[in-house]
Amino acid sequence: MRTILSFFMILLFYASSSYVAQISEALDTITVNQSIQDGESLVSAGGTFELGFFSTSVPSRRYLGIWYKKVTIMTVVWVANRVTPLADSLGTLKVTSLGSLVLLNANGSEIWSSNSSTDARNPVAQLLDSGNLVVKDVDGTGSSILWWQSFDYPTDTLLAGMKMGRNRKTGFERYLTSWKSIDDPSPGNFTHKIDPNGFPQSIVKQGSVVKFRLGPWNGVRYSGMPNLDPNPYYSYELLLDDDEIYYHYELLDSSFISRLVINSNGIVQRVTWIDRMQGWTLYLTIPKDNCDTYALCGAYGSCTIDESPVCRCLTGFTPRYSQEWDILDWSNGCVRTAPLDCGKDIFVKYSGMKLPDTSSSWFNKSMNLQECEEVCKKNCSCMAYSNLDIRGGGSGCLLWFGEIIDIRELNINGQDLYIRMAASESDLLHSKQKLLMGLAVSFGVFSLCLVLTFCILKNKRKKKKHLEGKDDGSESGDNSECQKEDLELPVFDLGTVAIATNNFSEENKLGEGGFGPVYKGVLEDGQEIAVKKLSNDSRQGLHEFKNEVLYIAKLQHRNLVKLLGCCIQEEVLLIYEFMPNNSLDSCLFDQNQRKLLGWSTRFGIINGIARGLLYLHQDSRLRIIHRDLKAGNILLDNAMNPKISDFGSAKCFVGDETEANTIRVVGTYSYMSPEYAIDGVFSVKSDVFSYGVLVLETVSGKRNRGFRHPDHCHNLVGHAWRLFTEDRSMEQLDELVESYNAAEVLRSIHVALLCVQQCPEDRPSMSAVILMLGSADELPLPKEPGFYNERKLPPEHTFSHPVHSPNEITMTLLSPR
Ligand SMILES: *[C@@H]1O[C@H](CO)[C@@H](O)[C@H](O)[C@H]1NC(C)=O
Ligand SMILES: *[C@@H]1O[C@H](CO)[C@@H](O)[C@H](O)[C@H]1NC(C)=O
Ligand SMILES: *[C@@H]1O[C@H](CO)[C@@H](O)[C@H](O)[C@H]1NC(C)=O
Ligand SMILES: *[C@@H]1O[C@H](CO)[C@@H](O)[C@H](O)[C@H]1NC(C)=O
Ligand SMILES: *[C@@H]1O[C@H](CO)[C@@H](O)[C@H](O)[C@H]1NC(C)=O
Ligand SMILES: *[C@@H]1O[C@H](CO)[C@@H](O)[C@H](O)[C@H]1NC(C)=O
């Protein structure tokens, strides 16, 4: 989350502040006989908002608007005369005796009016602390009637307390319209509104064309905004009753400054003001990525951002025009492979989806999923159904009529969608069972065969990943949850890989990985790959190899390294995307490379690793603990995005299981949490500990292992703790980093210290870490870190099976239990 400092806004601030008179006693109200001239302003009672005249970078156009009073970057949230700017600074705002707000030019002609004329008797205009400009009639008894409010006529900003939506009785609609450009507040081409057709959904339009769809409301969030989660900053909801449909949000902490805006490029953003940085920070954005582009993959085409290309047909469908499809023109979408026969059709469940366009849908809040299916089955033009509300296991019924469009797969918080399919596709219901791996069988002699089975199973691209049968006949037993998923990996021919790697030549060798050497290669089509080879004599390696295949093939996230395929002939190989910038380890601890790692890159890496780890811990369908997070296992792509690699030691957890004991402690000592190194107890919090160490290393450019300081004998963690307690944390920053954002540096160190606390319970979860890194909120004080003083393991521990990795040793130690 980067600070958005709009230079224009700064400009604008300076341009206008010279015009805004510094009236000492700021009023928030004007009455019939008062007016405001250009140069004067109203300030809301709490000092939050200001109403006055401003211009953008074009000084000859003056506007009446409302902006944040407390925010040092001029940020306009509402404009009255969007299309009719004043030509000079001689405008006047007054309240007519009839109760209209009017803006007059130098000649006294009306250039804008609120048109709120009524039979008001004693009208006043008041700027409220919510940013709402109201015209009300105050009668003798002190009670008042609201005649008009600016909240009913939003411009490009939705403030807390505003409604976006429609009155179903009167048809009155409130929506956001972008500015035409950054210096022209007149209405631009983009609107953000609630589409009331079918089941209401939130959309962004350019003119009359839908650009993005946030999706229908599922009781918790918009279906297409998986990251929108209940949070301590603001509450939000979409209200739907007989009278009204509207979205609104309320700030939970009045000191928190946040707004939702559609900018002149049609991007919807929620930004929050970070006092300490004196800047706006991005909190959420629409579109998130290319897959949010409306109907990108056409009817029955599904978009998956981690796939390349992103579009493919849902299982059971095939491109309508395969030639177009092959040249990446997906607009005509997909068609069924087997025709429907209404009476006999079945419904197949697709999981992890953003619900499709609901503009031609029908809904019923009280029906359950079974009733929903019955209704859909009966009507031959009903193509899909789902639950309306996901809360409490799901309720309500949503039916789609006609072609299903704008589907994407989500990594987290996706929903189930049941699509009508021909009865002949009934094997789709059971495909999961067919692909089930017998991996619950304990690892032993057969393990290599099993690994082979994985790879051989389907030698084509992953296709049925999201498909699940409805009658789920799930297996029980130890960790089967983690292992029963189907796996389909492309198979590479040994010859191809040998050519690509120059016959596994020494020059192509990148180093030694968890279970054998790693080579660089270039495929015939120019794609660069990294190839891991299982060394013949490595029993340990075989185990890790299995782990790696098991986990990484199932995980898809931009902060995890991607497995492209495998090869099992005379050699057992895993083929990955190649990471041109090598590992974090090689960049961070190399004197020359280190200089090139600027602060923003480092902060990007810190955030990226956190997101990857969050995905492992909670967002992926499995709960995975990496157990060997270290700088050597973070690879960097072209753009220096971090990718977590090496799942050789990873462990999968089932359901609510949160920690486990192990006799085999694997990992890298200087990143290991105390409870894991000493007691062999590991949990997600052990990864959090390693992450904290990694952050400290990234900030300082120094290894935890072997860290030496003249003043004390602590390791890097201990050093960080010392500096923190003495309020000298900035000294931790790598002296080779020239320009930096001090707030980000301090925050990273603070968060890292929270992560390396002695007790696992005290350490934050990765989702908390991400929030803390991206917000300005005060952080809890860290307690003493674990292992900050120690330099060696307690003597009763013995190491076995050291496995070499290029720079630091990943070790397995047996602890006597
Ligand atoms: C406005 O001014 C007129 C004349 O000065 C006066 O008669 C009237 O009472 C005033 N109205 C208010 C609301 O103060
Ligand atoms: C005011 O009136 C004069 C004369 O009618 C005209 O030239 C001028 O353009 C007008 N100014 C504005 C701001 O409308
Ligand atoms: C007020 O009414 C006038 C005349 O009907 C119209 O031109 C103007 O756009 C209206 N103003 C607003 C703010 O709706
Ligand atoms: C708005 O849309 C019109 C017509 O679609 C187009 O000509 C114009 O360039 C667009 N303006 C902006 C600012 O995108
Ligand atoms: C919704 O479903 C319930 C239960 O089946 C039914 O009683 C009700 O009439 C339905 N409402 C509408 C609007 O169809
Ligand atoms: C199926 O549903 C559509 C949309 O609600 C409706 O127009 C049509 O009449 C229904 N057909 C039957 C056979 O019920």
From TrEMBL:
Keyword annotations: ATP-binding, Disulfide bond, EGF-like domain, Glycoprotein, Kinase, Membrane, Nucleotide-binding, Phosphoprotein, Receptor, Serine/threonine-protein kinase, Signal, Transferase, Transmembrane, Transmembrane helix
Membrane-spanning ranges: 435-457
Domain Protein kinase: 504-787
EC number: 2.7.11.1
Protein name per its UniProtKB record: Receptor-like serine/threonine-protein kinase
Enzyme class: transferase
An example Gene Ontology molecular-function term: ATP binding
Domain Bulb-type lectin: 27-148
Taxonomic path: Eukaryota, Viridiplantae, Streptophyta, Embryophyta, Tracheophyta
PANTHER family: BULB-TYPE LECTIN DOMAIN-CONTAINING PROTEIN, OS01G0783900 PROTEIN
Signal peptide: 1-17
Domain called Apple: residue spans: 342-423
Catalyzed reaction equations: L-threonyl-[protein] + ATP = O-phospho-L-threonyl-[protein] + ADP + H(+); L-seryl-[protein] + ATP = O-phospho-L-seryl-[protein] + ADP + H(+)
